[in-house]
Write a structure and sequence with these properties.
It is a single chain. By secondary structure, this protein is an alpha/beta fold. 37% of the residues lie in helices and 21% in strands. It contains ten helices and ten strands. The strands form two sheets. The protein has a six-stranded parallel beta sheet, sandwiched between helices. A four-stranded antiparallel beta sheet has the order 7-8-9-10, with helices on one face. Strand 8 (260-268) and strand 9 form a beta hairpin. It is globular, with a radius of gyration of 19 Å. The structure holds adenosine monophosphate. Residues 29-30, 36-37, 39-40, 146-147, 149-150, 173, 175-176, 183-186 line the site of adenosine monophosphate.
Length: 288
């Protein structure tokens, strides 16, 4: 497996693989790999002939008060994990390469990017969508692998791909969890020992609503309340939002008669965690 920080070199290698008749899978990441990331790389390596992984802690998706500087950076071990998971090339550019002086163009997905996490993190999805659009233009993959753990992000990127006529196929993959249900996240390592024991409550709360849904409850307010009451019982959990929205356009759902998601974001101390489950009238509730 090779790695490069150079856009021209990456394009050259991808062109070569394409000329060899291989289809190109792409996994964009911010590094600090855990099994959530490696599951995406493995899926790409299974499905595609050639897999590119990007590692870039994208400054434009962090607000000034957020954790850009302290975000974990573990390139050496990430390269080893990428290789073991079947990646063919890691693209790890610098911020100067991605945003040279004079950079002025941003991509914004209206409405979908302004609810849920977009409300508390203004500009976040503008940064995410812009960097993904750039990466798609650099790599021109056939398939793009995204985790459902960040379901809003995946839905917004799928919207951008459709709206801007990118030809890539978006493949959303299931959330990988710790044994106690906590969704794996690079930010979990910020949790104190005490908060780490409480963190699985998020998924427990979602699962309680999921079971109610599977028993026939379709009233969104009742489903939200069932999850919220579990989180309210834990004084250390500071809930930012808990909402049910439709999967396609992220509109609020009152009664669930189409595929929807129950989303939660909460802070434990300084650490912000997100999670979600799918509530689908035909398929029941399942982990996103
Ligand atoms: P990040 O490095 O946090 O930007 O994540 C890169 C990709 O990995 C995104 O598509 C995430 O949705 C995905 N991802 C992060 N955590 C998980 C997880 N626990 N399970 C599945 N995918 C994940």
């Amino acid at each position: 497996m090779d790695h490069s920080s150079n856009i021209t070199e990456v394009r050259r290698q991808v062109d070569e693989a394409r000329a060899d008749g291989l289809n190109i899978g792409f996994v964009p990441t911010m590094g600090a790999f855990h099994r959530g990331h490696t599951s995406l790389i493995e899926a790409s390596a299974r499905i595609c002939g050639w897999t590119v992984v990007s590692i870039f802690v994208n400054p434009t998706q962090f607000a000034p008060n957020e954790d850009l500087d302290s975000y974990p950076r573990t390139l050496k071990s990430d390269l080893a994990k990428a290789q073991a998971s079947g990646a063919d090339l890691v693209f790890a550019p610098s911020a100067e390469q991605m945003y040279p002086s004079g950079f002025k163009t941003y991509v914004e997905v209206e409405e979908l990017g302004h609810v849920l996490c977009g409300k508390s993190r203004p500009g976040h999805f503008r940064g995410v969508v812009t960097v993904v659009a750039k990466l798609l233009n650099i790599i021109r993959p056939d398939a793009l692998f995204l985790g459902r753990k960040d379901a809003q992000q995946a839905i917004i990127i799928a919207r951008m791909v459709e709206d801007l006529d990118f030809t890539v196929e978006v493949k959303m993959r299931p959330t990988v969890r710790e044994a106690d249900g906590l969704a794996m996240s690079s930010r979990n390592q910020y949790l104190s020992v005490a908060h780490r024991t409480i963190a699985p409550r998020l998924f427990e709360a979602l699962s309680v609503s999921g079971r109610l849904f599977d028993h026939g409850e379709r009233n969104a307010a009742k489903l939200v309340d069932a999850a919220a009451s579990i989180l309210r019982a834990e004084s250390e959990i500071d809930v930012e939002y808990i909402e049910i929205r439709k999967a396609r356009g992220l509109e609020p759902a009152e009664s669930i008669n189409e595929s929807s998601l129950l989303f939660v974001a909460a802070k434990l101390g300084e650490t912000r965690l997100i999670d979600n489950i799918i509530l689908d009238p035909e398929m029941g509730s399942f982990e996103a």
